[in-house]
Amino acid sequence: MKCLKVIMNWFFYFYYSIALYIFRLMETELLCSFVQKISPLTNEELLAFTNGWQAITVKRKTVLTAAGETERYLYFVLEGLQRAFYIGEENKEATIVFTYPPSFSGVADSLLTQTPSLYFLETITASRLIRINYEQLSDLIKNYPGIQQLIFKTTCFALKGALQRHIELQCFSNEEKFKVLLRRSPHMLHLVPNKYLASYLGMDATNFSKLLATVKI
Amino acid sequence: MKCLKVIMNWFFYFYYSIALYIFRLMETELLCSFVQKISPLTNEELLAFTNGWQAITVKRKTVLTAAGETERYLYFVLEGLQRAFYIGEENKEATIVFTYPPSFSGVADSLLTQTPSLYFLETITASRLIRINYEQLSDLIKNYPGIQQLIFKTTCFALKGALQRHIELQCFSNEEKFKVLLRRSPHMLHLVPNKYLASYLGMDATNFSKLLATVKI
DNA sequence: CTGAAATCTTGGTATTTGTCAAGAATATCA
DNA sequence: TGATATTCTTGACAAATACCAAGATTTCAG
């Protein structure tokens, strides 16, 4: 009897280890294929880059970074939905960006300049992420030209995106912004609460609801 | 008589050369002190970086980069005022950013990602600028870590600025935006035509004028 | 310096957008 | 699963903002 128990424990541990290993392999694989699309790395760089990430699993509505804090991590989203948002006068929220897998996440400007974040980063749904802290990332950037290139490119694309969105916010009416959203990210309508979509488009939630009724289809 | 003419020519050329030399020294000095504040360079890097810039002098309302073109230059402003703006439906303009000395200029996202610009870059007043083309800049970035660091940092600050402005556009009322402008850049009121300031704040020009009358002081 | 063009101001009006409230629908957690 | 929050919808109303036009002012180029 004792013997059986030992064997079972052993089996359990064996399979658990394999499962964990495969799991980590899959995560790493996801990260690898993501970064390779942005900027090709050598095998050595890839190995260095994918090493040292910490996996976290969090519930919905978990604050990953609070406004006022300085961002400590670069995140990579494996599963779930997150948003960065600003809280203004009278607790009005302005959603800056949504993130979902596979992509990096984190308050980019705060992380890169190591200055306090203006935004909150929060999970919308339960999420699985991996993250690497600023010091490790800095070392990687310092020591591997390809990784520096990767982060630089990512930053450039972020800037491009921010300026693109700038236009939409400044030039488009609520209805136009709504239509752009419908056209460009129809899936978001199902995934994200309307409340957040409204705050992403910079309009009142009730107005968003009315647009849904009139503009739809 | 002939002799006198030759001597005068010689003198002219002599002083002209010296003047030009001093001029270039001053320009370079301006660029040096500007970049040193962002990210310190070694002497060698500084020498490499300040070399190869082309000086241009342009009249007011000169288009430096047109929407649809891919930005070819990184500019450094020595004198004058410029703005980047987007032209939307019915020729409505949205000013993205103003640039004035000493600072870099150019459509940052287009230059960095080498994709077509969404904006026009145009001088508001007659301007003196120096510029370096993308290929040269790329080489400098590739060959000098300090210069890569400089451009990377500049990009990060640009991103930070874009996200900061994002908040203002999305959360503030016209009056609030106007007050922020008054507080943060009062000098702009004298330098920049109200028309452009209005389009910078994302409001109608007539509304801007009314705010000037009511909010002032 | 002067005529022509661009810009600014102002009032009135139309449109867009936000606010409030309350009931309906939906999602969440124990 | 059921109780409890949260979110969504809808209407009427209020506020903000854009639009238009015309005259005053300023700026610019020849």
Order of helices and strands of chain A: HHEEEEEEHEEHHHHHH
Distance between the termini of chain A: 66 Å
| Poorly predicted regions of chain A | none
Beta-strand content estimate of chain A = 15-25%
Averaged pLDDT of chain A:
91
| Spatial shape of chain A | globular
Radius of gyration of chain A: 21 Å
List the total number of helices of chain A: 9
**Strand order in the sheet with the most strands of chain A:** 1-8-3-6
Helix content of chain A: 55-70%
What's the number of extended β-strand segments of chain A?
Answer: 8
Biggest pleated-sheet summary of chain A: 4 strands, antiparallel
Structural class of chain A: alpha+beta
Largest interface: A-B, 32 and 31 residues
Please identify the oligomeric state. homodimer
Question: Summed up, what is this model?
Answer:
The structure is a homodimer of 217-residue chains. With 217 residues, chain A is of the alpha+beta class.
Structure description:
- The structure is a homodimer of 217-residue chains.
- Chain A is an alpha+beta fold and 217 residues long.
- Chain A has helices at 2-38, 43-50, 108-113, 134-143, 145-171, 174-184, 188-191, 194-201, 205-215, and strands spanning 54-58, 63-65, 73-79, 82-87, 93-99, 103-105, 120-123, 127-133.
- In chain A, strands 1-8-3-6 form a 4-stranded antiparallel beta sheet.
- In chain A, a hairpin with a 5-residue loop joins strand 4 (82-87) and strand 5 (93-99).
- In chain A, helix 8 packs across helix 9.
- The longest helix of chain A has 37 residues, at 2-38.
- The A-B interface holds A 86, 88-89, 92, 94, 96, 108-109, 112-113, 115, 118-119, 148, 152, 155-160, 162-167, 169-172, 202 and B 86, 88-89, 92, 94, 96, 108-109, 112-113, 115, 118-119, 148, 152, 155-160, 162-167, 169-171, 202.
- The structure holds a DNA duplex (30 and 30 nucleotides).
